[in-house]
Amino acid sequence: MSRRFGPVLVVLMVAGLLPAVTVLNKGYGHHDFDPIFQEAERLDMPLAIHGAPSRGMGFDFFDKFIQVHTLEHPFAILIQFTNMVFEGLFERFPRLRVVFLEAGSGWIPYMMDRMDEEFEKPQRRQAPLLRKKPSEYIRSGQVWATCEVEEKALPQVIRQFNPRCLMWPSDYPHERLPDMFKRDIPEFLARTDLSDEEKRLILYENPKKFYGLEI
Predict the structure, then answer these.
(1) Structural domain boundaries, residue 201
(2) Which pLDDT score is estimated for 175?
(3) Low-confidence residues of the chain: pLDDT under 50
(4) Is residue 4, in this structure, part of any structural domain at all?
């Protein structure tokens, strides 16, 4: 985002981005990454986790883009997400805001149930920093996600997750044709399974809050 003050153009960085796939053999829940999260908290700067590339996630034998692209974003994000939650990242940095991009939102209720179930078992001692169920951290306001306009599971996600932590990703002008962008918002606004307030939050209020654009 840029703003002009008289003859001076000031460029404002509204967020940082971390790749979901690295060659470091460690997730972002590892303490080696704490300086990044400490600085993000100090600056009140949100962080985004973005998928791709796909190497090393178990489907290197795919030879078609449609298959790779279906899985590369969600698989990579779920790996980082699981590590960050169970390593207590959101307990250690209670003012940190992180958005998980371009994997839709249908994975959130599944992961809330899945992680809560694991936390009920004896292996919960392997997550000693957690003081409450994983699902409570997930809906706390620290974890954000983007959703697709046509996701049929969106009403359920809103009920189980946090309606103030969902955003629509335009992805403009990347990858999609102009006529596809033209349909996105009209089709979303025409949905009858979401309230007008929910639509306003997803399209406008939530992105504005996450990226600190409320000045």
Answers:
(1) 15-210
(2) 65
(3) 5
(4) no
